[in-house]
Amino acid sequence: MKPYPRKQYWNEPTMSWWERAYLPEIMRGLFITGGVFLRNMGRWVTLRKGALTTYYPEETRADYAEGNRGKHVLTQRPDGRPQCIACNLCATVCPAKVIEIEAAFDPDDVAHPKYPVRFEIDYSRCIFCGLCVEACPEDAIRMVKEVPNLPTADRWSLWLTREELLTWSPRSDVAKPYPPKADPLTKEPA
Amino acid sequence: MMQDLVVYLVFIAYAVAVLLLFGTVLTWVERKQAAIMADRIGANRAYLRIPFTGIKLIWWGLFHGLADGLKMMLKEDFSPNAYDRFAYALAPWAVFTPVLLAFAVIPFGGLLVPGKLLSALPALSAWFGERAYPMQIARIDAGLLVVFAFGGLTIIGAMLAGWSSSNKFSLLGALRAGSQMISYELIMGATVIGLILIYGTVDLTAMVRAQSGVVLGVLPAWGVVLQPFAATLFLTAAIAENKRIPFDLPEAESELIAGFYTEYSAMKMGLFMFAEFIEIAIVAALFTTLFLGGYNLPFMTDEGFVLPGNHVAPLAHGVVVAIQLVTFLAKVLLMSSFQILIRWTLPRFRWDQLLTFAWKFMFPLAMVNLVVTVLVVWALHA
User: Would you give the DSSP letter of residue B360?
Assistant: First the structure.
């Protein structure tokens, strides 16, 4: 039987006689991988880290990009209460419908009587689009570089609650100076 | 008579323990070495917790092998409907048993004189008297031939597995396994003929003894020094014989799912895997015995070190035995590690390339090597 004619391509690989001899190139490959092995092994036995990956839940990557936005935070008023006024704009704009807010009334706070008693985000469905941050009229929700501690065995612990979202307490903030400056009109601390 | 029984039972227990240990530890070595070669950390999540405490023993993921074994034991032993029941059940054992048996003729240490070793216990020492045993389970003159005979038996297991599963992928895998293993067995045989010519024997113990001298004044008379070309070809053929990447065509998962053990599950499949890992150790042991001076360090004999220039440094019998046992294990571990390095470096062959490589590249080279060896041996003897 006539053998099937093999098609000739314009970019046929060409090999020199050295590469055709096979063994030298195999040796070269073994030296490369063996070199990597010895280098990394040398690092491990001298108590340094010989890997590019991380022990994920215990250790997170140090080289997250500056622009990474992996976690929501709720900003706080100087007394520690959330800036959020429970207007539900973020929950409305959210394309994945992951934000749930339960509002409550606080007669003692005349300026901001409406506040969230529950503010929860489902991280199993959040797509990290940042629309909630854009929608917020009060600069109450932001996204930060870190990622929440997500690895878990069940889907119900993927909800981040108000308490966890309120743990963000920056020493310095461009938008809001901490400690806050006195109000120029009333001369009272904001 | 009783003394022989005791000594050989100890040898058998040692050999089986070493093989099973290598089979288990090599799974861990394979995972970790692959990870380190690829800048990763590797499996490290399995742990044993000391009961009633919070102390977790992780030990760099060493217990993953244990978890694997447990998983294999507890999984459903699924078997297909249309299959040859007897051959199907027999196949894993037909692969596993010869692999264990091949180690019987490989010497893992020099001459053992229990009477000398146990001189601290006079009663026991007197019972053993002057008896001496080479450290090897079966002292057979045709040792090398026995290894090849058992190596040939594993083909039957692979073919049985593929045939009895009544699955096209299994059958294709088995056909590939058969043709590949027969081709490479031939090359293995052709490469060691050179060694047989040089040492003038197929007795593995005698081969190791012959390697404890020196050549050209300084180099140890190891097989790899006398026959470097044959050593390379032999190792390549042995890896092909073991059906590991780059020669894992019989179980090429992208083409044949899992080749001849597609239809096997639970511990039956585990036996195939276990046999593969033990065979790494067997190949390493065989290579060590034939080409790397066996259980001896360079310039070492059963009496002690004989350095070039006839400087003799005798050692106590116990020290020699300990050094030989440790040296053998260390060499086998190093060679196993080298095989794993190859496995994680090279990509898989294509099927026609595999057979072309065997018959048109390696076989002529082995023949050339043999002819040159014959001429040199003839010239030296004449």
Answer: I
- ipTM for the predicted complex comes to 0.82
Cβ neighbors of B105 (< 8 A, separation 6 or more) are B136, B137, B138, B140, B143, B144, B146, B147, B204
| B344-352: average pLDDT | 87
Query: Mutate which of B32, B39, B41, B356 to test chain A, going by most A C-beta atoms within 10 A?
Result: B41
Domain that holds residue A34: 17-52
- Closest-CA residue of A relative to B43 is A55
Mean pLDDT of chain A: 84
pTM over 0.90? The answer is no
How many contacts (CB atoms, under 8 Å) link A and B? 42
Residue A171: pLDDT above 80?
no
Question: How far is the C-alpha of B70 from the C-alpha of B267, rounded, in Å?
Answer: 9
CB contact under 8 A, B39 and A30: no
Check A55 against B37: CB less than 8 A apart.
Answer: no
B191-224 pLDDT tens trace: 988 888 888 888 888 888 888 877 776 777 788 8
Q: Same domain, yes or no, for A27 and A90?
A: no
**DSSP-derived pairing of the beta strands B133-134 and B214-215:** unpaired
What secondary structure does DSSP assign to B255-313, as a single string? HHTTGGGTT--HHHHHHHHHHHHHHHHHHHHHHHHHHS-TTPPTTB-SSEEEETTTEEE
- CATH code where residue A95 lies: 3.30.70.3270
Domain count, chain A: 2
Q: How many CB atoms lie within 10 A of CB B43?
A: 20
User: CA torsion B221→B222→B224→B226, rounded to 10°?
Assistant: 30
Query: Which residue segment(s) compose the domain that B85 sits in?
Result: 2-42+75-381
The rounded distance, in Å, linking the Cα atoms of B184 and B173 is 16
Question: What letters, b where the CB count within 10 A reaches 16 and e where it falls short, cover B297-330?
Answer: bbbbbbebbbeeeeeeeebebeebbebbbebbbe
Q: Considering only CB atoms, which chain B residues are within 8 Å of A24?
A: none
Looking at the structure, tell me whether residues A151 and A93 fall in a common domain: yes
Closest CB to B342: pick one of A30, A32, A55.
A30
